[in-house]
Amino acid sequence: MADMKHNLACRQSLASAFQALSDEAVKAGWSEGDVALALAELAEERVIEITAKVIMEGSIHPQLVTAGGRNS
Q1: By the 8 A CB rule, do 18 and 43 touch?
Q2: Could you tell me if 39 and 17 are in contact, meaning their C-beta atoms sit under 8 angstroms apart?
Q3: What CA–CA distance (Å, rounded) separates 72 from 53?
């Protein structure tokens, strides 16, 4: 439950900036549909990027700690 509240608070804090970004893109001549799709795709790419980073750090970090321990 705490995760849902945390996510909601994050979404609420980003909502006005997100809407402003969308509005600016529409004012620049892009359709609302194009803007929504582009923002969704960018968000998906960001999630994939962050997930990959977490996976890599999780798999590399223990090795770095072990290597660091040998050098100490």
Answers
A1: no
A2: no
A3: 27
